[in-house]
Design a protein that fits this description.
- InterPro entries: GTF3C_component, WD40/YVTN_repeat-like_dom_sf, WD40_repeat_dom_sf, WD40_rpt.
- This is WD40-repeat-containing domain protein.
- One of its GO terms (cellular component) is transcription factor TFIIIC complex.
- With about 600 residues, this protein is mainly beta.
- The protein has a single domain, classed as YVTN repeat-like/Quinoprotein amine dehydrogenase (Methylamine Dehydrogenase, Chain H, 7 Propeller), CATH 2.130.10.10.
- About 10% of the residues lie in helices and about 35% in strands.
- It contains seven helices and 40 strands.
- Strands 3, 6, 32, 33, 34, 35, 36 and 37 form an eight-stranded mixed sheet that branches.
Length: about 600
């Protein structure tokens, strides 16, 4: 069945097709033999209570709000000398020499304070050029996105469904909330940011306040994500509805528990009442811990229309290790989570038992070395293990037994959890490897090498560890995302591009010559003006150089190719995170976050609609 599906996917190289979507993802307890999806899959841990924290007003929430790492301002090093500020100039003082902040007689803030507040708000805005480029003439429109402000893409790009918004800081964590069937009228996206370009991955003693953002996407109007959109009948669109104020510091990565929240009718009822929860959100935080939060439903928590609800949140479970920090996480199932540590070790916890027992401290089930440096990404190979009866049947009620990881030592390793003393180094590069994923449709591991080429790694016995290139990018790969419903790989890279490539076409390399990739968008930055430009509707490109059966480009072509001579990119345009929606009905929904703070939500069905 999988091979027949790959044949069909190989003929659609430009984007996911809804007619071919198929759920090949396996999770422990999700499926019942002969009955399909388990009705209790969408249920909640019945012993876990969601404690809605106290509300935080707008004045007290200021320490938790994110700040732009790279404000949308001109870079001083690129400005002409006559525009540079005078370093010897003294700050202005009030009359009489008193520099203390005072209030006017009527109790209002002085003009100096209002001016500083206006300047601070201006620094949090992003200036972005959006629109189409035709015949070399710029037909784009410049907009200013304030913190937590969103706009529709089809306002500037005809036949372009999607949204763009300002998250307020460099996006490090990004994940869709997995709501089971039937489709939810509102989808939720969790994201976290960092507010310093010099943030360290080592343990922070005093991490400080931070914010977990919960954004909602109204899906009640189908035309919102049709190629021909109807603006008059559009829904509420993308908006931030809730912020969780935490003290664990910035999060390097966040992942929703694959089970939890609202499901079918028998899974929604707990003691006769609706649970009113979205799910359990895990994250690797700056204090070195893996913390789990029970996220309430914003509507049930008292969110008001048109306002952001800020709540103080405390973790329901905090997982820590001595003398190291957790930098990456991955769920094996709704009861087991793994963390990649700064010292090259992997820790695995049974969080299901801890949540049911109410324990606040739990030791890891396994703790073993795999790398000689920090582990930046890890993923479980979500395939059911063989039954202990050794009759060839699969045990769908057990945890997966293989985990793959990538780290700063340049190694990609595969570990059998039944024997953690012998990790297998699949590939090794002279550079750090920062992303790895599992593709159920191809049955391969997806990672990248030091030359910014995204690769498939086979785990079959006949060609174990054989690699095939999917796409070669022009910037360092920052993140990879795969889907349970189609074989397309989304890549985030330092060249400012979010790229789609078909892994099924690569896996059938001998049958289909030529590999294609499509950039969903590309981000540019003007250092003199401090403005961003987002380029859409790019042509589908073919990567001839990664296919040995095709003739390489001539020297003249390679000489004029900007990608062949460009080795460094501005940090402002870095695309840091990508993620596919985990639901079958929303499998074409792709979210991508950048270091600049811009976040895109695109519907990429069938490739790039538009001119």
């Amino acid at each position: 069945m999988r091979m027949r599906g790959l044949e069909g996917w190989a003929l659609t190289p430009f984007g996911p097709e809804r007619a071919l979507l198929q759920d090949l993802g396996w999770w422990k307890g999700k499926w019942s033999e002969g009955e399909g999806m388990n009705s209790r899959w969408g249920g909640w841990f019945e012993d876990v209570q969601t404690d809605v924290g106290e509300k935080v007003d707008e004045e007290a929430v200021a320490p938790y709000l994110p700040h732009l790492v790279f404000p949308s301002l001109p870079t001083e090093i690129d400005l002409p000398r006559h525009l540079l500020p005078d370093p010897h100039a003294l700050p202005p003082t009030k009359k009489g020499g008193d520099t203390a902040m005072e209030e006017d007689d009527d109790g209002e803030a002085p003009p100096e304070e209002e001016e500083e507040q206006a300047q601070a708000e201006e620094r949090e805005k992003l200036k972005v050029w959006l629109g189409s480029l035709k015949n070399g003439e710029e037909g784009q429109e410049k907009i200013e996105l304030g913190r937590f402000e969103s706009r529709r893409l089809d306002e500037f790009l005809p036949r372009k469904p999607g949204f763009i918004f300002n998250a307020g800081g460099a996006v490090m964590g990004l994940d869709w909330c997995p709501l089971p069937h039937p489709p939810s009228p509102v989808e939720y996206l969790a994201l976290t940011t960092i507010s310093s370009h010099s943030a360290s991955i080592s343990r922070t003693i005093n991490p400080g306040p931070s914010l977990i953002q919960i954004w909602s996407l109204d899906m009640t109007t189908p035309s919102d994500f049709a190629i021909e959109t109807d603006k008059e009948e559009g829904g509420e669109g993308m908006k931030m509805v809730m912020g969780l104020c935490i003290e664990e510091g910035d999060a390097w990565e966040v992942k929703w528990c694959p089970r939890g929240g609202s499901g079918e009718e028998d899974a929604m009822q707990v003691d006769g009442e609706e649970n009113g929860r979205l799910g359990i959100l895990a994250g690797a935080f700056a204090d070195g811990s893996v913390s789990l939060f029970a996220v309430p439903d914003p509507k049930k928590a008292g969110a008001e229309e048109g306002k952001v609800l800020y709540l103080k949140a405390k973790p329901i479970l905090k997982l820590t290790l001595p003398d190291t920090t957790c930098d990456s996480i991955a769920w094996a199932s709704h009861e087991t989570i793994a963390a990649g540590c700064n010292n090259g070790y992997i820790a695995i916890w049974d969080v299901g038992s801890a949540l049911r027992s109410g324990a606040t401290i739990t030791r890891p089930l396994q703790y073993f070395p795999t790398h000689t440096a920090s582990i930046r990404s890890l993923t479980f190979l979500r395939t059911p293990p063989l039954h202990r009866s050794l009759d060839g049947t699969l045990n769908t009620d057990q945890e997966p037994t293989y985990i793959a990881s990538a780290g700063h030592d340049g190694s990609t390793t595969l570990i059998d959890l039944a024997d953690t003393t012998a990790p297998v180094v699949i590939t090794h590069d002279r550079g750090f490897i920062g992303a790895i994923a599992w593709s159920p449709h191809t049955g391969c591991i997806v990672t990248h090498d030091a030359d910014a080429a995204v690769r498939l790694i086979s785990i079959k016995a006949k060609d174990f560890a054989a690699t095939r290139a999917v796409v070669k990018l022009t910037g360092v790969v920052q993140n990879l995302a795969t889907s349970d419903h189609h074989p397309f790989v989304a890549s985030a890279s330092a060249d400012g591009a979010c790229t789609l490539s078909n892994a099924a076409r690569t896996s059938k390399k001998k049958a289909y010559k030529g590999h294609y990739f499509h950039r969903v968008f590309r981000l540019d930055f003007n250092r003199l003006l401090g403005e961003y430009r987002m380029i859409d509707n790019l042509h589908v490109e073919s990567t001839v150089g990664i296919d040995s059966t095709l003739r390489p480009p001539s020297k003249a072509t390679a000489k004029n190719d900007y990608a062949a001579i460009t080795g460094a990119w501005a940090p402002e345009i870095n695309v840091s995170r990508v993620c596919w929606h985990p639901s079958l009905n929303r499998a074409c929904l792709l979210a991508s976050g950048t270091v600049s703070g811009l976040v895109r939500v695109d519907w990429v069905e069938g490739g790039a609609p538009g001119s």
